[in-house]
Design a protein that fits this description.
Helix content: 40-55%
CATH architecture of the largest domain: Alpha-Beta Barrel
Number of helices: 19
Strand order of the largest sheet: 1-2-5-6-7-8-9
Shape: elongated
Largest sheet: 7 strands, parallel
CATH topology of the largest domain: TIM Barrel
Number of strands: 13
CATH class of the largest domain: Alpha Beta
CATH superfamily of the largest domain: Metal-dependent hydrolases
Structural class: alpha/beta
Strand content: 5-15%
Distance between the termini: 90 Å
């Protein structure tokens, strides 16, 4: 890997504070697979580095010390993986930059015509365009440093527009790190997928909060970018600068091969496709709702529920003491379990001569204890509303007798018997209709989106550029109106015929 953006020269800007820190940063970079580094010290009002010879001397000294052999743990001299350091500067653009470049007072990247240029984060888009045009006219190739910092580039296709103006785009590795909630990370990943980025850089400044860190970004890029493009932005393009070669400006085409399996999704195209087929979607929603409603009414058996209520007592008389209340609460928890015990449920099955086992009956029973009460609600469900009431009442009575007999306590008192339900508990027709409508929406929209994504026919000038990589020189307008008689020529002919008819009448 080649790092095109770093601040490793000691004591010249807000980067490395000492030679020791510079060497430490290079060691960290080397462990991450970086073999070449561009030392791009700041040029700005705060750091007016206008002495290229001084920067070169620092570069030479740093590279010499970084590549010295070292003693291993065994005392033997070992040679480290050599690391090359190229000259350069991160230049804050102003009206005087071109003059300083021509005077040789600022450094280009590896003494080429490529210039790493930066701006204020709040810079207007027009100023970046002006800077790119001015540098290009002067014979320089502008490389926009850490493009993710400039908010103005996040609107529309401004990055693509800059590339068309012959700008190259550099992005920091650390900016790619982050999940979908991070707007900067989302923007970076989107532009990487579009192949709008030409270089990746660490922008390392120190061994603390701005150390070289490529691992998380590289992990994501290896998963989502093709290997050809990945090599270009992490190594080959920077190497071309060092070797004095030309780089393709059209970043959207870099690394794009015929066997690229990645599909670029245009959300606007999908929106217009859905809008175009809105009647189909509405019809699917209606059909889903009707089918779900009909299935609920005709195919699903209604189920009814009835509830009996019991009160847990510790005495025959009304409870008055705190101890009695606490005992009653504890007993309520015990009774909750005993009501659905095998013995009780089997007695209910036998008494009502139910055509089910006690396990099947247990699935139809719900026992609830409202918070801060000693009430137990026994709910039974059944296809027959009268049978639901019988099961609830019988279970309440049987369980009360069982508890009083086995536990030798005052049995729970039934304070409210079940009522024959008149309204079914399930299924809910309204709920199923809504689910059916939603299913119709999802299914129809999914099919439309799938067909849109699978449609690879050329329909516009943009499609020619995106899919074929060709520039459209001219386009022929659709003149169907001439055939159908709606065009201006046919209209004029029709008008002439009308005039002739009027003359004949006269």
């Amino acid at each position: 890997m080649i790092d095109i953006h770093s601040h490793i020269l000691p004591g010249v800007d807000d980067g490395a504070s000492s030679m020791k820190e510079s060497l430490h940063m290079l060691s960290m970079a080397r462990r991450q697979g970086i073999t070449d580094v561009f030392a791009t010290s700041h040029y700005s009002k705060a750091f007016p580095n206008r002495d290229p010879e001084k920067l070169r001397r620092l570069r030479d000294e740093l590279m010499s010390r970084a590549n010295r052999p070292v003693k291993g743990p065994d005392g033997k001299i070992k040679r480290r993986q050599p690391i090359r350091i190229w000259t350069g500067q991160e230049i804050f653009y102003s009206n005087s930059v071109i003059r300083l470049l021509e005077e040789g007072r600022l450094l280009t990247l590896a003494d080429s015509n490529y210039v790493l240029v930066e701006f204020m984060p709040s810079v207007p888009y027009s100023e970046i365009c002006t800077a790119v045009r001015n540098l290009s006219r002067a014979g320089y190739a502008p490389v926009v440093a850490h493009a993710e910092r400039y908010r103005c580039l996040r609107k529309g296709k401004r990055v693509e527009e800059l590339i068309d103006l012959e700008a190259l785009i550099q992005m920091n590795y650390r900016s790619v790190s982050g999940d979908w909630k991070d707007s900067t990370a989302r923007w970076c990943k989107d532009n990487l997928k579009k192949r709008n980025i030409h270089f990746m850089g660490t922008d390392m400044h120190n061994i603390g909060n701005r150390m070289p860190d490529t691992k998380e970004a590289m992990s994501w890029m290896r998963k989502h970018l093709d290997s050809t493009y990945l090599r270009q932005i992490t190594k080959e393009n920077a190497l071309r600068i060092a070797e004095g070669k030309i780089i393709k400006y059209r970043g959207v085409k870099m690394g794009n091969t015929h066997d690229d399996d990645e599909v670029e999704i245009d959300l606007r195209e999908l929106f217009y496709a859905l809008k175009k087929h809105i009647l189909v979607i509405l019809a699917a929603i209606l059909a889903g709702a009707v089918i779900a409603g009909a299935a609920t009414k005709l195919l699903m058996t209604p189920v009814y529920s009835a509830t009996s209520t019991m009160l847990v007592l510790t005495k025959e008389t009304t409870l008055s003491s705190l101890a009695d209340l606490q005992i009653g609460t504890q007993l309520t928890k015990d009774y909750n379990i005993l009501i659905t015990s095998r013995t009780v449920l089997q007695d209910v099955v036998d008494e009502l001569n139910l055509d089910m086992t006690y396990k099947e009956l247990k699935e139809c029973i719900t026992v609830e204890n409202p918070s801060d009460t000693r009430l137990l609600s026994v709910t039974a469900i059944d296809k027959d509303p009268e049978m639901a009431k019988k099961i609830a009442d019988t279970l309440a009575k049987t369980s009360a007798d069982f508890i009083g007999d086995k536990m030798e306590v005052t049995p729970p008192k039934i304070i409210e018997e079940g009522e024959v339900p008149t309204i079914q508990t399930s299924p809910s027709t309204k709920k199923n209709v809504l689910i059916g409508a939603l299913a119709g929406l999802v299914l129809s929209a999914g099919i439309i989106i799938l067909l849109t994504l699978m449609d690879d026919t050329i329909k516009s000038e943009e499609d020619i550029e995106n899919y074929l990589g060709l520039t459209t020189l001219a386009s022929i307008p659709d003149r169907k109106d001439y055939i159908t008689g709606k065009g201006s020529r046919n209209s004029s002919k029709a008008a002439q015929k009308k005039k002739k008819k009027k003359r004949r009448k006269k």
